[in-house]
C-alpha cells in the first residue's frame, strides 16, 4: 500500500496542519481563562450544587485540531437530579453571563448551547448531564465519553493522521456536522482513523466502498456487519464505539459520502496538494452560463435573524418541497443549489430545469381493467379528461390539458394563490411571502453577489472529483 510520492505528500501536509508549541500553549491558556470565567459564574449564581464539574471536550481536549483552526468545546456537567427545563436554562445562563464581554449567542442542536469568539477562537459552552455510561438523558451526554475513549485509544501518530483526514475533507467541503454541510464530523474522523489506522488506509477503504455490505465497527468483529446493516438502513453505517445503537453515518448526506468515495479514487490515481487546499468555487465560463441561463430559475427572499442551523434546516426542507411539488406537475429539475447568505440575511434557491416549459398535454396511466374499484376511482378523479381509452396492456389511460406550461408562471401562481400546496416550514412563511422573488437568469442579468455565488455552485464541476 505504501507509495513514496504519496507518503512524502502526506508528510508535507502534516507539517502544515500540526499546531506549533506556541499555539498549543496560547490555546491552553485561553481555554483555562474561559473555564475559570464559567466556574466564577457558577459560584456567583450559586449553582455549585447543581453541577458536578466543567470539562474540556472536542478536538481541543483530544489534541486533533488543525493548525490555526481550533474550536474549543467546554461541557458543563449537570447532576442527574436537575430537571431538563432547568438544565437548559442554567446552561444558557452560565454561558451567556460568563462570556458577556465577548458577544455570546445561542446555537441549537438537540438543545441550546452558547457560542462566542474569544480572541478569534470559537468557544462552544455545552450543557450535559453527569450520567453513568449508557444512561443518556441529553444528546450531549455521550460527548465526555467520546473524549475519554479517543484520548485512551489515539496515540500521537494517529492524532496526526486524523489531522490529515480532516484537511482532506475540509478542502472538499464535506467536513463538519452542521446541517449546512451534512459532512463528516471531527469525531467521525477520529473513529475512522481508530478503525483503519491511517489517512491512506481510510482513503483506500472509501475508494472501494460498497454500501451493500460495509459497516464500520471498532468494538466488534467484522462478521457482525450484516446484523448491523439490517438495523441501520443507511448509505453509510459507522457504529459509535460508545453507543452501538447509534449510527454516526446517519447525519452524513449521500452527497458527502459519494464525494469522499470518488475523490479518494481520483487522489490515489493522481495525488496532489490540491486535495488539501480549499479552492474557491470558480465562476462558470461564459459559454456554459450562456447555454444554461435559460434553464435556471432563481428564488430569493430575506429572512429574519435566527440561528444558522435553524435557517439552513428550514431552507433545505423548503427546497426539497418545492422540487417535489414542481416535478409532480410535470417539470423536471436536474439539479438544485440552496444557500443562506448570513451577512445579507438572504436565502437563495437556484433550480436547473431540463426545460422551463412543458407540453400543454398531460398523460395519465391508470389501473388494469380487472381492478374494478380502482378503475372507477381513476375515471371519477379524471372526469374532466376529454380523451380516455384502454391500451393493449389492459390499462386505462387519459389525456389532460395543463393550465400552465411555464415553470416560473406556475410557481408564482401557486405561491401567490395556493401557498399551502407547497410544504413551506411554518417558521419561514412570514419571511418568505413578505419578500420572495422568482426570476430566470436571462431576466435578471445584473445579479447581486450572493446570487452569483449560488449560481456558481450550481454550475461548478470539481476537477478533483471528476
TrEMBL record:
Domain CCA-adding enzyme C-terminal: 295-412
Needed co-factor(s): Mg(2+)
Top EC group: transferase
Residues bound to ATP: 59, 62, 146, 166, 175
Subunit structure: Homodimer.
Binding site for Mg(2+): 71, 73
InterPro entries tied to this protein: CAA_C, CCA-adding_arc, CCA_tRNA_nucleotrans_2, NT_2-5OAS_ClassI-CCAase, NT_sf, NuclTrfase_I-like_C, Polymerase_NTP_transf_dom, tRNA_NucTransf2
Known function: Catalyzes the addition and repair of the essential 3'-terminal CCA sequence in tRNAs without using a nucleic acid template. Adds these three nucleotides in the order of C, C, and A to the tRNA nucleotide-73, using CTP and ATP as substrates and producing inorganic pyrophosphate. tRNA 3'-terminal CCA addition is required both for tRNA processing and repair. Also involved in tRNA surveillance by mediating tandem CCA addition to generate a CCACCA at the 3' terminus of unstable tRNAs. While stable tRNAs receive only 3'-terminal CCA, unstable tRNAs are marked with CCACCA and rapidly degraded.
Listed EC numbers: 2.7.7.72
One GO BP annotation of this record: RNA repair
Boundaries of every Polymerase nucleotidyl transferase domain copy: 40-133
Pfam families: CAA_C (PF21133), NTP_transf_2 (PF01909), tRNA_NucTransf2 (PF09249)
Domain tRNA nucleotidyltransferase substrate binding: 160-276
Family of the protein in this entry: Belongs to the tRNA nucleotidyltransferase/poly(A) polymerase family. Archaeal CCA-adding enzyme subfamily.
MF (Gene Ontology): ATP binding; CCA tRNA nucleotidyltransferase activity; CCACCA tRNA nucleotidyltransferase activity; magnesium ion binding; tRNA binding
Name used for this protein in its record: CCA-adding enzyme
Catalytic activity: a tRNA with a 3' CCA end + 2 CTP + ATP = a tRNA with a 3' CCACCA end + 3 diphosphate; a tRNA precursor + 2 CTP + ATP = a tRNA with a 3' CCA end + 3 diphosphate
Sequence positions that bind CTP: 59, 62, 146, 166, 175
Miscellaneous field: A single active site specifically recognizes both ATP and CTP and is responsible for their addition.
Key words, A-Z: ATP-binding, Magnesium, Metal-binding, Nucleotide-binding, Nucleotidyltransferase, RNA repair, RNA-binding, Transferase, tRNA processing
Amino acid at each position: 500500500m505504501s507509495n513514496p510520492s504519496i507518503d512524502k505528500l502526506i508528510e508535507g501536509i502534516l507539517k502544515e496542519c500540526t499546531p506549533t508549541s506556541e499555539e498549543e500553549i496560547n490555546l491552553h491558556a485561553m481555554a483555562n481563562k474561559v473555564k475559570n470565567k464559567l466556574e466564577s459564574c457558577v459560584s456567583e449564581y450559586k449553582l455549585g450544587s447543581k453541577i458536578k464539574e466543567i470539562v474540556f471536550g472536542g478536538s481541543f481536549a483530544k489534541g486533533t485540531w488543525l493548525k490555526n483552526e481550533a474550536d474549543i468545546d467546554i461541557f458543563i456537567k449537570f447532576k442527574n437530579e436537575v430537571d431538563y427545563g432547568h438544565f437548559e436554562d442554567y446552561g444558557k445562563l452560565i454561558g451567556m453571563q460568563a462570556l458577556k464581554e465577548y458577544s455570546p449567542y445561542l446555537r441549537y442542536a438537540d438543545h441550546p448551547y452558547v457560542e462566542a469568539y474569544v480572541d478569534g477562537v470559537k468557544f462552544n459552552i455545552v450543557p450535559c448531564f453527569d450520567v453513568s455510561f449508557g444512561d443518556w438523558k441529553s444528546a450531549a451526554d455521550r460527548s465526555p465519553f467520546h473524549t475519554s475513549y479517543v484520548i485512551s485509544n489515539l496515540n500521537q501518530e494517529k492524532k496526526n493522521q486524523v489531522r490529515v483526514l480532516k484537511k482532506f475533507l475540509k478542502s472538499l467541503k464535506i467536513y463538519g456536522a452542521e446541517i449546512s454541510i451534512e459532512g463528516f464530523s471531527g469525531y467521525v474522523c477520529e473513529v475512522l482513523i481508530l478503525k483503519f489506522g491511517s489517512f491512506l488506509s481510510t482513503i483506500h477503504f472509501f475508494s472501494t466502498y460498497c454500501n451493500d455490505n460495509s459497516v464500520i465497527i471498532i468494538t466488534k468483529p467484522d462478521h457482525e456487519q450484516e446484523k448491523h446493516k439490517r438495523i441501520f438502513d443507511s448509505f453509510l453505517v459507522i457504529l459509535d464505539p460508545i453507543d452501538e445503537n447509534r449510527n454516526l453515518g446517519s447525519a452524513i448526506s449521500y452527497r458527502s459520502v459519494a464525494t469522499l468515495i470518488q475523490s479518494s479514487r481520483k487522489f490515489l490515481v493522481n495525488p496532489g496538494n490540491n486535495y488539501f487546499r480549499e479552492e474557491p468555487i470558480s465562476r462558470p465560463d461564459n459559454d456554459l452560463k450562456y447555454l444554461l441561463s435559460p434553464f435556471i430559475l432563481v428564488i430569493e427572499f430575506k429572512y429574519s435573524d435566527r440561528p444558522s442551523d435553524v435557517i439552513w434546516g428550514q431552507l433545505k426542507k423548503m427546497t426539497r418541497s418545492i422540487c417535489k411539488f414542481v416535478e409532480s406537475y410535470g417539470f423536471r429539475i436536474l439539479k438544485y443549489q440552496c444557500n443562506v447568505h448570513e451577512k445579507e440575511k438572504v436565502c437563495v434557491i437556484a433550480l436547473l430545469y431540463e426545460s422551463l416549459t412543458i407540453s400543454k398535454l398531460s398523460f395519465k396511466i391508470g389501473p388494469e381493467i380487472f381492478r374494478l374499484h380502482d378503475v372507477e376511482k381513476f375515471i371519477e378523479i379524471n372526469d374532466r379528461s376529454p380523451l380516455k381509452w384502454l391500451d393493449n396492456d389492459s390499462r386505462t389511460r387519459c389525456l389532460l390539458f395543463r393550465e400552465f406550461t411555464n415553470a416560473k408562471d406556475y410557481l408564482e401562481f401557486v405561491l401567490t394563490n395556493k401557498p399551502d400546496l407547497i410544504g413551506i416550514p411554518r417558521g419561514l412563511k412570514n419571511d418568505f411571502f413578505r419578500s420572495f422573488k422568482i426570476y430566470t437568469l436571462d431576466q435578471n442579468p445584473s445579479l447581486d453577489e450572493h446570487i452569483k455565488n449560488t449560481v456558481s455552485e450550481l454550475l461548478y464541476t470539481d476537477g478533483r472529483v471528476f
